[in-house]
Amino acid sequence: MEEATLNIIQPRPIGFKEQRLASLKTDIIKELYQTSAQNLKTKDDEITFLENEIHKLSGGQLASRQIIQLAHSQFDIDQLAVDVLIYSNNKIKDTIPTAIVDWKDGISKLEKDRQASKLEALLKIQLNSEKLKLIEIK
Length: 138
Hints:
Elements: H1 16-74, E1 77-88, E2 93-103, H2 109-127, E3 133-137
Parallel strand pairs: 2-3
Antiparallel strand pairs: 1-2
């Protein structure tokens, strides 16, 4: 052990350039973290919104079935479809509740018009919308 030497290695003091580089790295990491956190918040908000929309649409399907059953019991309808559609004219998009009705054979034009007016009023109340599009087929 008499011939052994002890080497002590100490880190060199950090110079100004090294401090700036370390600070820059820290700032970049902080910014990336903040951006990621903000993106996650935005995505979480979007997911919550879409979950709410799915819930509304699921409830809307049940309501549509009930409305269709009610309409079949009140009017001379062969087939009826009710849904909210998106209408667009390349400038404006609008969501409008829409009903497509196929009347039973054998009813007169006057009776169809009278029932269509009543059906439209019923659907506006049931769908809670002043805007409604009633499309007759056949």
